[in-house]
């Protein structure tokens, strides 16, 4: 049942934007979605990639990286710099984004992935923050290399129906990410990663090259994340440290994977859709607006953050395995379920 | 098994220290292809540490370990597994989120050069191995539903699925009752019959005497005695190590008592 | 030469703050195995309490420190007992996320209450300092350093000489065994977190005297506390003291590098941390965990 419903929703999301095309309009097709929805939908697709990519290293392999936004930024700046400074065409510059991000991940991952648990999480967070700062502040001969604090402006990509183009591009990336996850989970590689997650030492003695596999997972996640950054840079036309290395993205992608269900194929995507809609809703960027009593316009984003924080706490306490369990029929959403989840982790 | 063939596994003066204490101190012995050898010794004698050294989890502080003539000391665990040495852990380490079948299949997916299959073949091999250890009825069960004896079987199944030439078993019988021990013994013998050399650590003497041709006794990290199980177990020093000096003395003065 | 000494002085003074920030964080991490991402928020709450008392009642900031300690202890105890205890037995990713969520809630609540304006605490003596030749040692940071050391000493005494401290040590060694001898884990966990929060509160009060604060000013301190504890080593208060002072020195010298040295402060901190983690994970003086 859910499959049909989900299928309809996905079909709508993918096809509705087409109704805004001139050709469709002149044929009197009713407008099912406008530019604002494209933008939102593009963001949703973007986060589907981010969450799914994180899921590979964090959910499947069990190494909860906290700094993956660094790869997003690296991808964005790679493509951005190639287009803005070296005058490359977009479609030539884009493939380099995942490549550079992956290379960085491979180099950084080798020492980093030797750390376990807390250490790895915070070290990866540190790397994420440090990269962002470096990119903003590196100077060469007195000039900021990457555009510094003012950021980098890209020439606008001239194409018909730009919004539509980037939407479908991002959707393609999202489909790629989900497909890669699916492939990984049924491959030898995926089993090896799960083995590493469940018991790394046991995995090693049965012949899993844990170092190579961990680095591979990390690199794969970085590549997908970097690809998204590359698309973002041309789509947004302007990049700086704030919109390419936002620390909140780290938590958002993890929360999305968690909310949806780590280690699953569709979990992160489901979580991305839900959470991104919620964030946009709270932030007031959805066409549906609402009034929060006692709260001024200025305070809305702050209240949104508070709600996000509370949501994070609630999800972690009560739905640690994610909502995908409910869609798969393995669990039912009930008070008993919530109580059980709490008891499992309580002192 | 030719008596003049080179040993399959050779330990020469293997030493491993933790802090200032040598858990394994100058251990030297050989294992020939196709043997079943037992390692016994009182608690803390260094038996598990020794296995960890062989399987690559610990780096040696001294000495060398040779597998089929080549040194393997310093190799990472996964390479040693690839060479054909499999092991189980004393406290079992199943992959909790997988089913029994999947656990065994992972062993088949990786492991020695003889294994390393594609997922479909791996699952076929897994089914075969589960039959070998007697778990085929529970193949689709989640690991969490297994009893302790079954978890131990799974541990062995997973190790066997890696198609090892040498299998290191770490106290497989611990915590089992007599009936379960018999079943486990049968399992070990079945595995051995497929041509796998077995090196097992045990506390249960019945197993050592029943199944091993040779036993090596460790105490304080050193080899105390070596030989056929019955004679080793009668060795004065061995009795002393296990039961203390006073019991050994008592045996002397009361020759009617016999054996542990 | 004088410049060098001045840098050392500045480094040690900055280190004082880092010590104060680090000891509470290290306690919670060492005993409860929680990397407390709420730490920075707790610190800044302490800062705001000091500011409110100063701005409203003209209370000398140093005198408000005990108030900070008590208030934050109560907050911390409640948080642990009510919320964090319920996630303790989950994989650490969850505690990470939970404490991050709490951090979000606290910081943004502060934003709603106080706005994002910078507030500072400037008692009459704040600009003055000790002058030894060309070297200046400002009074407030100097006293702050003293308070921080005292805090560490008091914490050490509590951990080693009191009954509570003994219980906390027991939990740190073996949680289950501690339960078996009758230690009420839920209460002791909450006490430990409360003490850690109290230290954070004091640190916040000190910080408010030295820099202007805003609700988001606590964020960097969480990560820096992490670096301090890693540098010094997990396990002993004295290790955190060493780590904090060392970090202060590294920061002082790092910022003095000609060019845009100061801007790379964060990058240097993390670079150092990663190097330490990879080469000597137990830090200067800690036990390997």
Question: Characteristics of this structure?
Answer:
heterotrimer, A: 347 residues, mainly alpha, 2 domains, two-stranded antiparallel sheet, 17 helices, globular, B: 260 residues, alpha/beta, Rossmann fold, six-stranded mixed beta sheet, four-stranded antiparallel beta sheet, 10 helices, 10 strands
Please tally the helical runs of chain A, counting DSSP H or I stretches of 4 or more residues.
17
Helix content of chain A: 55-70%
> What would the average pLDDT of chain A be, to the nearest integer?
85
Largest interface: A-C, 45 and 47 residues
The biggest sheet of chain B amounts to: 6 strands, mixed
Which oligomeric state applies?
heterotrimer
Shape label of chain B: globular
CATH architecture classification name of the largest domain in chain B: 3-Layer(aba) Sandwich
Tell me the structural class of chain B.
alpha/beta
Helix content of chain B: 25-40%
Discrete helix count of chain B: 10
- SS-based class of chain A: mainly alpha
N to C succession of SSEs of chain A:
HHHHHHHEEEHHHHEHHHHHH
Number of strands of chain B: 10
* Radius of gyration from the alpha-carbon trace of chain A, in angstroms: 21 Å
Distance between the termini of chain B: 32 Å
CATH level 1 name of the largest domain in chain B: Alpha Beta
Question: What order do the helices and strands come in, and which of them pair?
Answer:
The complex is a heterotrimer of chains A (347), B (260) and C (289).
Chain A: H1 2-15, H2 22-26, H3 35-60, H4 69-84, H5 90-93, H6 96-112, H7 117-137, E1 139-140, E2 143-144, E3 152-153, H8 162-185, H9 188-198, H10 200-205, H11 210-236, E4 238-239, H12 241-244, H13 247-260, H14 267-283, H15 300-318, H16 324-327, H17 335-345
Antiparallel strand pairs in A: 1-2, 3-4
Chain B: E1 9-18, E2 21-31, E3 36-40, H1 47-54, E4 62-67, E5 70-71, H2 77-83, E6 85-87, H3 100-109, H4 119-133, H5 148-161, E7 166-170, H6 178-193, E8 197-201, H7 205-211, E9 214-219, E10 222-227, H8 229-234, H9 236-243, H10 245-253
Parallel strand pairs in B: 3-8, 3-9, 6-7, 7-8
Antiparallel strand pairs in B: 1-2, 1-4, 4-5, 9-10
Helix pairs in contact in B: 3-4, 3-5, 4-5, 9-10
Chain C: H1 2-32, H2 39-57, H3 61-82, H4 92-114, E1 129-132, E2 135-138, H5 139-161, H6 163-173, H7 175-180, H8 185-210, H9 219-232, H10 237-255, H11 265-279
Antiparallel strand pairs in C: 1-2
């Amino acid at each position: 049942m859910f499959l049909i419903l989900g299928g309809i929703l996905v079909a709508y999301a993918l096809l509705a934007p087409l109704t805004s095309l001139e050709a469709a309009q002149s044929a009197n097709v009713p407008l099912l979605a406008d530019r604002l929805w494209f933008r939102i939908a593009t963001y949703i697709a973007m986060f589907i990639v981010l969450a799914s990519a994180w899921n590979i290293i964090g959910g499947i392999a069990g190494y909860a990286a906290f700094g993956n936004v660094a790869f997003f930024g690296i991808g964005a700046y790679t493509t951005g710099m190639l287009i803005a400074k070296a005058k490359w065409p977009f479609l030539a510059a884009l493939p380099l984004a995942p490549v550079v991000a992956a290379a960085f991940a491979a180099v950084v991952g080798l020492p980093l992935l030797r750390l376990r648990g807390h250490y790895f999480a915070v070290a990866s967070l540190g790397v994420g923050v440090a990269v962002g700062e470096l990119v903003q502040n590196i100077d060469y001969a007195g000039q900021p290399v990457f555009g510094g604090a003012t950021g980098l402006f890209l020439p606008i990509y001239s194409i018909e129906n730009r919004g539509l183009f980037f939407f479908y591009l991002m959707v393609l990336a999202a489909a790629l990410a989900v497909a890669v996850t699916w492939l990984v989970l049924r491959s030898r590689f995926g089993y090896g990663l799960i083995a590493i997650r469940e018991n790394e030492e046991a995995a090693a003695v049965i012949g899993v090259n844990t170092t190579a596999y961990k680095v591979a997972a990390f690199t794969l996640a970085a590549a997908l994340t970097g690809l998204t950054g590359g698309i973002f840079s041309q789509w947004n036309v302007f990049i700086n440290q704030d919109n390419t290395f936002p620390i909140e993205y780290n938590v958002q992608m993890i929360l999305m994977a968690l909310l949806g269900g780590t280690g699953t194929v569709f979990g992160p995507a489901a979580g991305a859709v839900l959470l991104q809609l919620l964030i946009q809703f709270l932030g007031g960027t959805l066409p549906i607006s609402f009034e929060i009593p006692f709260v001024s316009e200025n305070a809305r984003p702050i209240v949104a953050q508070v709600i996000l924080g509370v949501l994070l706490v609630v999800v972690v306490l009560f739905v640690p395995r994610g909502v995908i369990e409910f869609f798969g029929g393995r669990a039912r959403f009930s008070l008993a379920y919530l109580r059980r989840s709490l008891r499992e982790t309580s002192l | 098994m030719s008596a003049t063939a080179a040993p399959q596994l050779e330990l020469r003066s293997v030493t491993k220290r933790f802090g200032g204490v040598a858990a394994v101190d100058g251990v030297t012995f050989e294992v020939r292809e196709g043997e079943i050898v037992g390692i016994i010794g009182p608690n803390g004698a260094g038996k598990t540490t020794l296995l960890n050294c062989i399987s690559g989890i610990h780096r040696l502080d001294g000495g060398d370990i040779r597998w089929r003539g080549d040194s393997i000391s310093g190799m990472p665990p996964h390479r040693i597994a690839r060479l054909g040495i499999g092991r189980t852990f004393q406290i079992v380490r199943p992959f909790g989120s997988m089913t029994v079948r999947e656990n065994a299949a992972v062993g088949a997916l990786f492991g020695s050069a003889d294994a390393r299959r594609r997922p479909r073949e791996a699952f076929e091999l897994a089914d075969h191995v589960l039959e070998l250890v007697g778990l085929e009825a529970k193949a689709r069960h989640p690991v969490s539903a297994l009893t302790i004896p079954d978890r131990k079987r799974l541990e062995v199944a997973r190790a066997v699925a890696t198609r090892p030439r040498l299998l290191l078993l770490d106290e497989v019988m611990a915590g089992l009752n007599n009936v379960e021990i018999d079943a486990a013994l049968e399992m070990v013998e079945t595995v051995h019959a497929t041509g796998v050399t077995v090196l097992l650590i045990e506390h249960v003497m019945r197993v050592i005497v029943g199944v091993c041709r040779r036993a090596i006794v460790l105490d304080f990290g050193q080899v105390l005695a070596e030989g056929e199980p019955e004679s080793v177990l009668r060795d004065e020093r061995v009795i002393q190590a296990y039961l203390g000096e006073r019991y050994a003395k008592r045996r002397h003065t009361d020759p009617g008592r016999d054996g542990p | 030469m004088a410049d060098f000494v001045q840098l050392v002085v500045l480094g040690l003074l900055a280190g004082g703050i880092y010590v104060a920030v680090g000891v509470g964080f290290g306690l919670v991490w060492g005993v409860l195995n929680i990397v407390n991402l709420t730490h920075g928020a707790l610190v800044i709450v302490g800062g705001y309490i000091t500011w409110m008392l100063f701005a409203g009642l003209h209370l000398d900031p140093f005198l408000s420190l005990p108030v900070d300690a008590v208030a934050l202890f109560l907050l911390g105890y409640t948080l642990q007992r009510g919320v964090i205890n319920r996630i303790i037995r989950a994989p650490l990713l969850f505690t990470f996320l939970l404490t991050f969520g709490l951090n979000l809630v606290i910081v943004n609540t502060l934003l709603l209450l106080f706005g994002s304006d910078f507030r500072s605490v400037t008692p009459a003596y704040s600009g003055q300092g000790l002058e030894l030749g060309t070297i200046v040692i400002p009074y407030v940071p100097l006293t702050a350093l003293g308070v921080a050391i005292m805090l560490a000493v008091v914490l050490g005494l509590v951990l080693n000489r009191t009954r509570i401290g003994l219980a906390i040590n027991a939990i740190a060694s073996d949680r289950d065994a501690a339960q078996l001898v009758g230690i009420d884990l839920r209460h002791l966990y909450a006490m430990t977190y409360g003490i850690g929060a109290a230290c954070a509160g004091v640190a916040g009060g000190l910080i408010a005297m030295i820099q202007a604060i805003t609700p988001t000013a606590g964020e960097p301190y969480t990560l820096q506390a992490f670096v301090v504890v890693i540098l010094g080593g997990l396990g002993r208060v004295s290790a955190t003291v060493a780590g904090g002072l060392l970090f202060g020195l590294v920061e002082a010298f790092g910022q003095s590098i000609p060019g845009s040295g100061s801007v790379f402060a964060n990058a240097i901190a993390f670079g150092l941390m990663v190097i330490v983690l990879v080469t000597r994970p137990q830090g200067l003086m800690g036990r390997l965990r």
